Amino acid sequence: MIKVGLTGGIGSGKTTVAKLFEKKGIPVYYTDTKAKHLMTYDKLLKFQIIEAFGKDVYHSNGRLNRKTLASIIFNDKSKLTLINNLVHPAIAADGKAWYQAQNSIYAIKESALMIESGSHHDLDVLVVVTADIKERIRRVQKRDHVSMKTVENRINNQLSDAERLAHADYIIDNNDFGKIEEQVDALHEELLRI
Questions:
Q1: Domains and CATH numbers, the chain
Q2: Rounded to whole angstroms, how far apart are CA atoms 126 and 73?
Q3: In this structure, how many other beta carbons lie within 10 angstroms of the beta carbon of residue 22?
Q4: What is the mean pLDDT of each run of 10 residues along the chain (194 residues)?
Q5: Do 18 and 12 form a contact (C-beta atoms < 8 A)?
Q6: Fewest Cβ atoms closer than 10 Å to its Cβ: which of 33, 45, 149, 161?
Q7: pLDDT of residue 52
Q8: DSSP string, 79-137
Q9: Beta strands 170-173 and 125-130: pairing type?
Q10: In terms of pTM, does the model score above 0.85?
Q11: d(CA 98, CA 111)
């Protein structure tokens, strides 16, 4: 089975692209969703996060307080590095088990921090989704109901598109939503032939 990584900056449209592959029957591992699950239900990881950031990063019901954690990590690069160093090993192990359970010609792991975490080295193909910065900011503001400054801080804590593209095997341009489906169709056909 071919292990495909799908990455791009915040607001680039990774999830939209991933869902188009899912419509074709391709399994997708959503790293962000899985990370939130593990941060709530993996006892060791949860303990480590509380030790590092305090119990306020969890609600009284035990669920992750994403807003509080985001306000900490996106305003301090050392805190962002710390959370990534805690979460990435748990995701790597979980993702490896997930790949082993799949039964398709290829499967996709979707992740914003694939290159930063080094997990792209464990994959056969890397697809980078791109979009203009202004469009990415607009999308995230609409989706998350946050200020432009908040989105800019998040973007500044990620690699630039140029840095991501240096690692890309394939690129999907998501500036025009009407054109991404044909790009996904073409890439799907190519991956089936590898």
A1: 2-193 (3.40.50.300)
A2: 27
A3: 14
A4: 96 95 97 94 96 96 92 88 93 93 96 90 96 94 92 89 96 91 96 92
A5: no
A6: 149
A7: 96
A8: HHHHHHHHHHHHHHHHHHHHHHH--SSEEEEE-TTHHHHTGGGG-SEEEEEE--HHHHH
A9: parallel
A10: yes
A11: 14
